[in-house]
Amino acid sequence: MRIPSSHERAIATTLKGVEDTLCNIEGLMERRDCERILTRDIQQLSSIETNTLKECIGEIRKIIKYIADELGLEKREDNVRGKIIGTLIIKSINLEEIKSKRLRGYGEVPDELREFLDPQIDKMMRLVDEICKIASSKDKKTEIQREKP
């Protein structure tokens, strides 16, 4: 079936988002998540629920494949560099939002909080920038000297 390219992009982008979410759910079920400082996932799914979820995920994938085949949607390569940079740019904006000048929107920021938090956020933002620079580099042997956190 031939469809307009704008429709193709919209459909493919949405289905890709669904696929990404399915992969995230599978990661949670399989405990493939990284070690976290502020949260931990508690597995509350029974093996029956986990198997049922896996079956549903498999069915969704079959539907995605069927749609892709029928509409001639081609598999695209996802650029890991782009994913890293895009994700971290958003996180950099989020980090900026918790610096003391932005926290004033939630009330007066105590001096000791500002003096403690802002330098730590600045360090994290520098490291985020460093990761983006590394991910942006086309030279696989690039080494960037960095400060200790």
Describe the overall structure:
The structure is a single chain. Helix 1 runs antiparallel to helix 2 (47-71) and helix 3 (80-96) packs antiparallel against helix 5 (111-136). By secondary structure, the chain is mainly α. Helix content is 65%, strand content 0%. The model has no long low-confidence stretch (mean pLDDT 87). The protein folds into two domains: 5-71; 80-136.
Highlighted features:
5 helices; mainly alpha; 149 residues; 2 domains; extended
Short recap of the structure:
This protein is mainly α.
Question: What is the topology?
Answer:
Elements: H1 5-29, H2 47-71, H3 80-96, H4 100-103, H5 111-136
Helix pairs in contact: 1-2, 3-5
What is the share of helical residues? Answer: 55-70%
Radius of gyration: 21 Å
For the report, how would you describe the main beta sheet?
none
How are helices and strands ordered from N to C? HHHHH
